[in-house]
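From the pipeline queue, job 12 of 40. The input is one protein chain; the requested action is below.

Action: predict structure.
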Amino acid sequence: MLAVVLAFLLSVSLLALRPHLGLTEAAPRLWTEQPPAVSQTTRPAPAWVELAKALKPAVVNISTRRTQNGPAGPGMPDENNPLNDYFRQFRGRPAPRVLRGLGSGFIITPDGTIVTNNHVVDGANEIKVTMSDGREFTAKVLGRDPKTDVALVKIDARDLPVVPLGDTSELQVGEPVMAIGNPFGLEQTVTTGIVSATGRVIGEGPYDDFIQTDAAINPGNSGGPLINARGQAIGINTAIFSQNGGSVGVGFAIPVNLAKAVITQLAATGHVERGWLGVTIQRLTPDLAKSFNLPETHGALVTDVTSDSPAAKAGLKSGDVIVEYNGRKVGRSEELPRAVADTPIGHQVPITVIRDGKWVTLQAQVARLQDREPGATQVASSENKGALGLSVQTVTPEVARDLGLDPPQGVVVRDVRNDSPAAIAGIRPGDVIVAIDRQPVKNVEDMKSVLQKHPAGTPALFLVRREGGNLYVPVG
């Protein structure tokens, strides 16, 4: 009798522990209209096994060929050598080199539309797509977007398996994910991990918003999908942080919510149109917030306003802090470029700024973004540095011409003393100081005058022009 009672109590205890032992029923998985089929066995396989079986056929290998003019061979002159014609006549031109590349992609429509990275297919003369069953197709590029590193290619096929796209607005740190791709040419490799972070800015472009994961991502994984536990692509694997060329558990994927609008435009027109406001911004650090008498570091600090731009016409000014755009709060400066880019061309939007401690709401009509290339700035160095550790020179017409400044304005930093307040703040040789404490600086005398009036013991707020853009820097 005692044995029967103990057996009954043990069975009740195991039932009570089922949720803690991971023995609960698996959550339903999404796979387009229906979930992936589960093996008809007495013991169902883990969810990742079934998802890998269902999704691997929709992940492809992408190989590319690029033709590049070969370097000059032994005895061949460079392109500017006046003897070029002689050498070409008797030695011939250098043979072109063929460069090969490998990457991944995944099918999103049954008729062969494939998502991959721009850097996988950029400059390719030939693109081959290999399916998991060994079939090969020649692909054509529907469109590329270098700013987000997204590309769309197409193969001529029907009834292909697809990877459904998920919703990254619901993505949570710690959520399990799976990467599928072709690292180092090893086809159909599957790795798993978790979402390590979201909203990562890694300096790849103006619209950085990467998902960070510790799922192993290596060269060749670029363009492959990052899958959630519901069998949906929530990212496009694109970059890694590594000191040895291999995975160290820090990989990055483009969120599909960012890619969806890009994919739609690439499929329709082959290119992407984005909204443009015409401001240069920077992150609001605690030191900058203190300099502007702001209680928080939320918002985007305007450092420059392009003349005749939507921002200029709306009345935005350098020194404004944008805290709301089109009804959305701007918590970090990185959020503003993405919000502006997604705004329909010609749309009228309200912009709320903090200006001299007051909240001001302006109206701007968003225009179409045109590509612009910033100019470079280089100058020599000199001595005679002041208390801040700077050696400066008034920008003359000749200096302005060398620096690409129009009109000539400000003072150029010729040299910065090591370990000086200016060096610690990040001032560099070649920076052009155009304002201090929001007072214009036209020459060295103006700079001295403004600094003499600056309260002792507090940082001076420098506005410097660097590589075609403006930047606020607290110095002191």
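Job complete. Residues 1-35, 38-42, 72-80, 372-385 have pLDDT under 50 and may be disordered.
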